[in-house]
Write a structure and sequence with these properties.
The protein contains 19 helices and 21 strands. It is of the alpha/beta class and 556 residues long. An 8-stranded parallel beta sheet has the order 7-12-13-14-15-16-17-18. The protein has a 5-stranded mixed beta sheet with strand order 2-6-19-20-21, with helices on one face. Helix 14 packs across helix 17. Mean pLDDT is 94; it is low at 1-21.
């Protein structure tokens, strides 16, 4: 396979953008998708029945226009009444980590301590010479008690184990992993992190946020081939669920390097927007100066920081203590001084800045800094984002629209955390929690995604979560915080056009329009007419990326 330089990739991307519409005016269609119910990304229901494609671009929409542009060489696909829409874009995915979990032991479905240990023991016996690193667990499904190293030591022996809670902010290590990292009772908690300890002061096996850096530094690095294999598993998984692009706000460079290696081998089949640590903004600014920002298969130029931790780990930063943990109100993962300095520099360099903020204090802090930076650096189209924006004071919500900050949220979290969130923060702080409708009513731009592997890389589960708010345990059939349900058009827009806008691609992606890139998803049911409780059963029939069917009966 031909290897391409980054400069060649960038040049090819620019040529496609310029040449696409011109080619569409001169040629017959390559592909005609007919007999469909087409939602173009505009309007509250499907109104058209056909879409025509030339190369990687949409060239015609509507039955008449498609017939007029069809020729002897046009491949006609009868969709038999299926629902055709702009392909899903996921606003937040830890894609390499998530892709690795697809071949790791399934811990999330484990329901008790013995089964949990048995699954990790089986993985350790199968791979005694390597670290066991996945998948995610949830103590709420294991009876509510946090696991400890004693749960798994006997089953895993000398094989190091470090497995994340589903939120990726808290990990469980066995004694072998703790020894390998040289961590003892004398190891202090690092800034922005917590080492769980037992009654004797020994490490319990629980590590939160920046404490995970203590053991991650001794992990043997995976090979480039292993990373590529994992990414290809993840791409196939995403395409099966109708996803054509993921945004990857990371705090490491490994994912970015692996994506660059994959892109150099050709079209990866899925699009990626790769963000790297805000702390390294000067490095990314230099890359942009020297290489540009990539192409529509792999783009960069964004940076991401963590303001706080997670609700499940009790490290999300709140103004008041946790209801179930007096004396604890969260962790400031990055100091305010560093956040302010780094965001100011990155924004001045023209980089795209996004910040993880979960608790109400963290969201207020980040909005304060973003407002200050915008005033200092002056007006520009910066599109600041806050990832998650989970718990805000009601008075905070209008600030997102006022400051033009994008609320990058993940609907599945609401129906997952909704089972137990009130235990963490109490009923009075639920006003402003997972407040999707309040953000939209206030005029903010809201985008949707998964946070894979924290949640499934499956937009239809997110669609169901956003419009139903029914928790995954079935305990809230009318919806948890039902006043925050949103409409289908708001939901689909948040997964398509709004995500294109959040990635500076709204001029070519996120809608079905002539000249736009032909990223399309075909479903077996019309999402505007299907019963809400049937949404989880809707099937993806085809996913097209760049005009080529990447998943489906005619996939190439």
């Amino acid at each position: 396979m031909t290897m391409l330089s980054r400069r060649q990739l960038i040049g090819q991307g620019a040529a496609m953008v310029l040449a696409g519409p011109a080619l569409a005016a001169e040629r017959s269609l390559d592909l005609a998708l007919v007999n469909a119910r087409v939602w173009t990304g505009e309007g509250a229901f499907a109104t058209l029945s056909a879409v025509g494609v030339i190369g990687d671009r949409i060239a015609a929409i509507g039955a008449g226009a498609v017939r007029a542009r069809s020729g002897s060489g046009t491949r006609v696909v009868d969709l038999q009444g299926a629902f055709l829409m702009p392909a899903f874009i996921d606003n937040h995915s830890h894609f390499l980590k998530g892709s690795r979990t697809l071949t790791q032991p399934d811990l999330l479905s484990s329901k008790d301590r013995a089964d949990f240990a048995a699954r990790l023991g089986a993985a350790a016996r199968a791979h005694p010479d390597r670290w066991i690193l996945g998948g995610g667990w949830d103590e709420q499904r294991l009876g509510g008690e946090l696991p400890t190293r004693e749960w798994i030591d006997a089953a895993t022996g000398d094989t190091p184990v470090a497995v994340p809670r589903t939120d990726l902010h808290m990990y469980l290590l066995n004694s072998a992993a703790i020894r390998a990292a040289g961590i003892t009772r004398r190891t202090p908690d690092p800034a922005g992190g917590v080492i769980g300890r037992d009654a004797k002061g020994e490490p319990s096996g629980i590590f939160k946020d920046n404490a995970n850096l203590l053991w991650q530094r001794v992990l043997p690095p995976p090979s480039e081939a292993a990373n590529e294999e994992a990414l290809r598993h993840g791409i196939a998984h995403g395409l099966r669920h109708g996803v054509a692009q993921v945004h990857i706000p990371e705090i490491e460079w490994e994912t970015h390097a692996s994506l660059q290696s994959l892109r150099a081998r050709g079209e990866p089949g899925m699009r990626f927007y790769s963000l790297v640590p805000l702390a390294d903004w000067e490095k990314m600014a230099a890359i942009v100066r020297e290489q540009g920002r990539g192409d529509d298969w792999l783009r960069w130029g964004g940076v991401k920081a963590l303001a706080d931790g997670s609700l499940g780990s009790r490290t999300a930063l709140f103004r008041r203590d946790y209801a179930d943990a007096p004396g604890q109100h969260g962790v400031r993962v990055t100091s305010l001084a560093d956040l302010r300095r780094w965001i100011l520099g990155a924004d001045k360099a023209g980089l795209h800045v996004t910040t993880h903020a979960i608790g109400d204090e963290a969201n207020d802090d980040v909005l304060d800094i973003l407002g200050e930076v915008a005033r200092i650096n002056g007006p520009r189209d910066r599109r600041f984002r806050i990832e998650h924006a989970q718990h805000c004071r009601p008075a905070t919500i209008p600030r997102f629209a006022r400051q033009k900050v994008i609320a990058s949220v993940q609907p599945y979290h609401a129906i997952d955390d909704g089972r137990w969130a009130v235990q963490r923060i109490g009923p009075e702080r639920l006003d402003g929690t997972y407040a999707f409708k309040s953000f939209l009513d206030a005029g903010a731009t809201v985008t949707f995604g998964s946070d894979f592997p924290v949640a499934p890389l499956d937009p239809l589960t997110g669609v169901f979560a956003a419009i139903s708010r029914e928790t995954i345990d079935g305990a809230n059939p009318r919806g948890w915080l039902p006043d925050q349900k949103v409409s289908m058009i708001q939901t689909l827009t948040a997964y398509t056009g709004a995500n294109a806008y959040a990635g500076f691609q709204e001029d070519r992606l996120g809608a079905i329009r002539p000249g736009y890139i032909a990223d399309l998803t075909v479903l077996d049911a019309d999402l505007f007419t299907v019963a809400p409780d049937a949404i989880p059963k809707v099937q993806v029939l085809r996913t097209l990326v760049g005009g080529r069917e990447r998943f489906g009966p005619d996939a190439v």
